[in-house]
Amino acid sequence: QVQVAESGGGSVRSGGSLTLSCEVSGYTARWSCMGWFRQAPGNEREGVAMIGSDGRVRYADSVKGRFTISQNNAPNKSYLQMDILEPEDTAMYYCAARFFTACNTRFVPSDFPHWGQGTQVTVSS
Predict the structure, then answer these.
(1) What's the sign of the alpha-carbon dihedral 19, 80, 36, 21?
(2) CB contact at 8 A, 96 and 4
(3) Are strands 114-115 and 91-99 parallel, antiparallel or unpaired?
(4) Are 109 and 92 in contact (CB under 8 A)?
(5) Are 71 and 79 within 8 A, CB to CB?
(6) pLDDT of 26-55, one tens digit each?
(7) In this structure, how many other beta carbons lie within 10 angstroms of the beta carbon of residue 93?
């Protein structure tokens, strides 16, 4: 059974940084696409960043230049480095994974069958 686990959330002041980690386990094949999504209360889940097993990355316009997604040579993990955080970044952050097919060009939550439980990020002004 595939398991997805996030870690690294917390509370920071505006302008601060956090690094989220995601680990995928329970499947012999390597994931083909990992995505980070977030959801604030009352809002729909939105895509933040994606990374394919080929290293290609995509970012939402709202986080370009501030967030960086990477693998760091860890085959079952991805990392989301979040810098210059803003109160608008406050949300529950979810990691998602899929196997065999490459990342889509758009952030589509239903593309990902495997999800973590989420980690809370709170940015105060």
Answers:
(1) negative
(2) yes
(3) antiparallel
(4) no
(5) yes
(6) 988 888 999 999 999 999 999 999 999 989
(7) 24
Q: Which amino acid does the sequence have at 40?
A: A
Residues whose CB is less than 8 angstroms from the CB of residue 41 and which lie 6 or more positions away in sequence, other chains included = none
Q: Distance (Å, rounded) from C-alpha 105 to C-alpha 120?
A: 26
Tell me the C-alpha to C-alpha distance, in Å, between residue 13 and each of 83, 92, 94, 98, 121: 11, 16, 21, 33, 11
118 to each of 29, 36, 47, 59, 100, how far by Cα in Å? Answer: 23, 10, 13, 19, 23
Count other Cβ atoms within 10 Å, centred on residue 49: 25
Question: Position of tokens 């109160």?
Answer: 87
Cβ atoms of residues 92 and 81 within 8 Å: no
Which residues, 6 or more positions from 110, have their beta carbon under 8 angstroms from its beta carbon?
none
pLDDT recorded at residue 30: 83
Are 22 and 6 in contact, with CB atoms under 8 Å apart?
yes
